[in-house]
Predict the structure.
Amino acid sequence: GVDRLEFLGYRDSGMVDTADNKDPHSFHQAKLEEAAGKLAVFMREERPDVVVTYAEDGVYGHPDHIKAHYVTNAALDLLEKEGLAVKKQYYTAIPRSMMEAFIQQMPEEARAAMGGNMRVAGTPDELVTTRVDVHDYVERKREAFRAHSSQNDPNSWFATMQDQIYEMAFGIEYYQLVRGKPGSEVPEPDLFAGIS
């Protein structure tokens, strides 16, 4: 679970070419060194063994996800220089083959909607190092998705897809190890594999 939630003091950036994205107080507009310094403060206090962030593409190009990638990496670089390196860092991943299979399950109108404002190519399969089975939590993930109604149309295909497709898409979480060494044979079954 989560026992601490902190904010860096920035507002949501919205999507590219929106007023929110141009707001000087948005995360997207934050100076990298400043934001990384704020994040590093929390990391020094918490001393995490494992850190997960977005890959450079932010999954689907969301400016805040992309900024989180750069800010997290810069904060980890600062900690490493101080001798406080984390044991492992991961990027979230969607294997390209899985993304292609998922898209094939989508009705044409959902594909068209996705193509309009989302770009999800997926991670090349050979870069995926970790597969965490979360089938026991799929329904809870689905409830959380539904509760996030400001970001999701409750009548969209994503919100109403068949259970078996939802399980295929969200029953395994995938990651790419980018700092540290695998804690087991690849694919690792757990982010904390090999950490004692």
